[in-house]
Design a protein that fits this description.
Protein name: NfeD-like C-terminal domain-containing protein
Structural class: alpha+beta
Strand order of the largest sheet: 1-4-5-3-2
InterPro entries: NfeD-like_C
Order of helices and strands: HHHEEEEE
Organism: Pulveribacter suum
Keywords: Membrane, Transmembrane, Transmembrane helix
Mean pLDDT: 90
Shape: rod-shaped
Number of strands: 5
């Protein structure tokens, strides 16, 4: 059995896509795009060196683009601040007075809770939104 160069490139791309599906490594998908570039270069009639060069350039470029896009993306919120994990996040509480230590006692869901504010924010009375649960304390932001 004699396979064309483009067929080998497509088989390698397919194998890398299968590996990506099994492992969930997104960068393997970028490398598969590079292998597809090698296959397209083979279809265009380029030599082996040009096919390898096209595959390497496209694969490297897509990996770098994916890396920098992922690096510049803001991180996911912690589970303590994620509303889908903690239904208290986003709820509103009323703060009537702040203590000198930066805490306040609030009534929330029928119980007494200790609320704290973020560093650098001047505490003020009034409605606040729960931003995060830290242990048994509510981290609140003014509304």
């Amino acid at each position: 059995m004699n396979l064309d160069a483009s067929t080998l490139w497509w088989l390698m791309a397919g194998a890398v896509v299968v590996a990506e599906l099994l492992t969930g490594t997104f960068y393997l998908l970028m490398l598969a795009i590079g292998l597809v570039a090698g296959a397209l270069a083979a279809h265009a009639g380029l030599g082996t060196a040009a096919q390898v060069l096209a595959s390497a350039i496209v694969g490297t470029a897509t990996v770098l683009v994916a890396y920098f896009m992922r690096r510049n993306r803001p991180g996911e919120p912690s589970a303590r601040a994620d509303r889908s994990v903690n239904l208290d996040v986003g709820e509103t509480v009323q703060i009537d007075a702040w203590q000198p230590d930066g805490t306040a006692s609030v009534r929330y869901r029928g119980a007494s809770w200790t609320a704290v504010h973020r560093a650098g924010i001047t505490p003020a009375t009034g409605p606040h939104r729960v931003a995060e649960l830290i242990g048994n304390r509510l981290l609140v932001d003014p509304i």
